[in-house]
Amino acid sequence: MNDAIYKLVYCSRNQIRGTPEEIIREIRIILKSAHRNNPPAGVTGALLFNEGLFAQVLEGPVDSVSRIFETIQCDGRHSDVTVLQNGPAEHRDFPEWSMAFAASSKPNPSLESAIPIAGTALSNPSAAGEQVLQLLRDVVVQEDWIMA
Amino acid sequence: MLGAEFRPGEQRAPKALNASHMPELAADSTEWPAEIPTLVAGALDSPRAGCIVFGPDLRVLHGTGRLETLLGLGRHQLAPGAELLRSLEMSTELDGDSRKRLGSLLRRAVDGTETDDAPISLRQTDGSRTATVEIRRIGRQCWIAIFEDVTSQRDTESNLLKLSLQDALTGLGNRVRFEKSLALALNGKPETRAALILIDLDRFKDVNDTMGHPVGDALLHLVGQRLQSAVRESDAVARLGGDEFAVLVVQDPLPASVTLLAGRVVDLLQRTYLIGGQVVNVGASAGIAIAPQDGDTPESLMQHADLALYQAKANGRSQFQFFESWMEERSQNRRTLELDLRKALPLGQIETYYRPRVDVATMSLLAFEAVIRWRHPTRGLLEWDSFSGISDELGLTVRIVDWVLRAAVRESAKWPDRINVSVSAVPGQFEDGNLVKAVKLALSAGHVAGSRLEIAITEDILWRNEQSVLAVLHELRKIGVKVGMDRFGSGYASLRQLSIFPFDRVNIDAALMDDHLGNARHRAIVRAIASLGASLGISTIVEGIETSEELTRIRSEGCDSVQGYLPGESVAASEIPALIAAFDPAGVIPGPPITGGQG
Predict the structure, then answer these.
(1) Which tens digit of pLDDT belongs to each residue from B38-95?
(2) Is there a contact between B277 and A82 if contact means CB atoms under 8 Å apart?
(3) What is the pLDDT of residue B302?
(4) Where on the phi/psi map is residue B568: left (φ > 0), alpha (ψ -120 to 50), or beta?
(5) Choosing a second label site near B348 at 20 to 30 A (CA), which of B3, B38, B256, B333?
(6) Is B243 a catalytic residue?
(7) Best A74, A85, A122 residue to mutate vs chain B (most B CBs within 10 Å)
(8) What are phi and psi of B366, to 5 degrees?
């Protein structure tokens, strides 16, 4: 965990289809696999989910982040992955989280503001990346409610 | 489990040969030569060996080593006095054929029949182990059969075979292996259904060039992984070489499922890669051919998938394309045209035609622009645009253009001095750095002054390598040659280009003359270029003028000359004297009749 920290922020289009229950089930599976795979790889981060969008922060050793990103990249549950920010980082934003989670199923005005991020991603990826990071720092909640 | 004596761990233990055994064996009245301990020890020195010492009655004198696993014989079957042939029949490990061969070898040994020195190999029933056996006479009444386990050697060989069929970078099959799979899938059964997907990365070269080969290699590795993850187990995936991959679908290769797969592959491969912390983006195009309808041999299927891939790339990349029969027709057409074009210059089929350029004020002939034509034996007279692409690919363009330069300059010697000749240069002439040499040669061969020649370039030539092109243009200028710019206003040309080299004239692109002069915007641009030309001392030529009204308009816009339709379409060299006479009866060339366009 003392290795140099590399950080990657991306957003993507949610391709999970189904009822809200089915979607939550899928998200649970995603988080479970993150909780299983990330700690041994020294990776922490946060996942933001909303009806149309995923945004995720991955932080850890560059090789681990690359490997995990490659798996994520091939996942059919999302598409149009846009890397918003990537590079070495001074510190972890989510040191305590194998994968912190924020979702918009609960009313949350700041999460709603994540929707325009997808739109601005292409025109200004690094600004969008910063926006996602800030948003996640602000609203990260225990995933208890969804994992319960 | 057999006795300790046969356990691999104790194979090299000299116990088997120690004094306590020796008297027992020696007591058996069989001759027991002195060297036997050394021989047996030698045979057992290898952890993979075992041996049986036997007498003339084919009864065992001594057996030891790994015979249990090699031959599947228990301890009692190899105990002193055991009948070897009967024991062999009990072997649970050797296959029937190996048993028979070993039996006959043993019999021939004691019969005194000459046997080959070379060891024969024995194979186990399930093929899991292979052993060799060598039988030697070690005394008058005593023989030894030495067995050696060569399984790992065989495995090494099969590993080598595997490696030769495997792509080292991705761990996927390589071309050889893929072609074998393909041949196997299509093997002689015309009704076999199979789909072949050829995949090629888009912009892979850029990755290698800008990020380095290690990143390129890592990318290929990830591409291999993604491909493997996208296909089913029954599909074969291979890297054929470079950035070319292939998938063979043999199970349910229906168009609908292949469409899904190809779409997934194209989508997966164009997703962002993260390599050593760097973001890498490439795309992938795919071509698909389905057996038997698109080809029932490996070769035809490969060829057709390749044509489909070519089409997918031509359609704008990052997509897939099924083979269609017209692709083959077109490619055959193209192949024929290629063969024909290679012969065109030697056969004198390339001809130079001339387009008159006329002064809009005086309506007198200023120059002829040389244009390239190909008198194809069956397709008729072809314009340069219809075969310049193939010519570029075949690397014939510079030769053709150089030839046209010589022909046109030679032809111009027959015209009145005031009529110039204009020849277009191509990028290849600048790359070779041979343009100046070619121009000088043409001028001296034709006895024509440099001032009568105009070399026309297109703006993309300048754009490619500005400094070296400018140097060439200045060289040309030194020998009096004029320099013109064709198709101004059609591409990347910036006004800056007009300032970095003193062009003698610009040719206003025909696209700006679309709608002719009805379009006010176009008209404004034409007028601006003309006035810009006037103030920079650059003459302006307009092409595609059809009516005298347009001519009047052009004149009022300030353009200097016109070329093409109104003054006349391009003509063969033989028609030039008549054309000159029509414009200016005083200019008729006296002297011998003019020969044809090929000069």
Answers:
(1) 656 565 555 667 888 888 888 988 877 667 777 777 777 888 888 888 888 887 777 7
(2) no
(3) 95
(4) left
(5) B333
(6) yes
(7) A74
(8) -100, -40
The CA dihedral of B51, B55, B60, B65, to the nearest 10 degrees, is: -10
What residues does B488 pair with on adjacent strands? B508
Closest CA of chain A from B266, distance in Å:
12
Beta bridge partners of B505: B484, B539
Q: Report how far residue B56's alpha carbon sits from residue B99's, in angstroms, rounded to the nearest whole number.
A: 19
Question: Average pLDDT in the B193-207 region?
Answer: 93
Nearest-CA distance B276 → chain A (Å): 7
Percent of residues in chain B assigned helix, strand, coil, to nearest 5: 45, 25, 30
Return d(Cα B202, Cα B207) in angstroms, integer.
10
Q: Which 3 state secondary structure label does DSSP give B39?
A: helix
| B229, B274, B276 ranked by CB distance to A69: nearest | B274
Cis peptide, bond prior to residue A39, ω within 30 of zero: no
Crossing angle of helices B520-536 and B548-557, in 10° steps, is: 50
Q: Report chain B's mean pLDDT, rounded to a whole number.
A: 82
Q: pLDDT category, B594, cuts 50, 70, 90? A: very low
Measured between beta carbons, which residues in chain B are less than 8 angstroms from residue A79?
A: 267
User: Which of B195-199, B200-204, B492-496 is least confident?
Assistant: B492-496
Give the nearest chain A residue to B268 (CA atoms): A74
**pLDDT tens-digit series, residues B451-490:** 999 999 987 787 777 888 899 999 999 999 999 988 876 6
CB contact under 8 A, B274 and A87: no
The pLDDT score that the predictor gives to residue B89 is: 82
Please answer yes or no on whether B274 and A79 come within 8 Å at the CB atom: no
A8 closest CB neighbour out of B271, B273, B274: B274
Q: Please tell me the distance from the alpha carbon of residue B174 to that of residue B163, in angstroms, as a whole number.
A: 9
Q: Tell me which of B167, B202, B243, B560 is the catalytic residue.
A: B243
Hey, what are B303's tokens?
């060829």
A45 vs chain B: nearest CA distance in angstroms?
16
Q: Which of A6, A66, A73 sits opposite B271 (nearest CB)?
A: A73
Kindly list the residues from chain B whose CB atom is less than 8 angstroms away from the CB atom of residue A8.
Answer: 274
Angstrom distances, CA of residue B307 to CA of A40, A125, B153, B178, B199:
47, 38, 44, 19, 12
What residues of chain B lie within 8 A of the CB of A88, using their CB?
Answer: 277
* Number of C-beta neighbours around residue A19 at 10 A: 8
Q: How many Å apart are CA B63 and CA B70, to the nearest integer? A: 13
> What is the 3-state secondary structure of B388-423?
HHHHHHHCCHHHHHHHHHHHHHHHHCCCCCCCEEEE
Other CB atoms within 10 Å distance of the CB of residue A2: 6
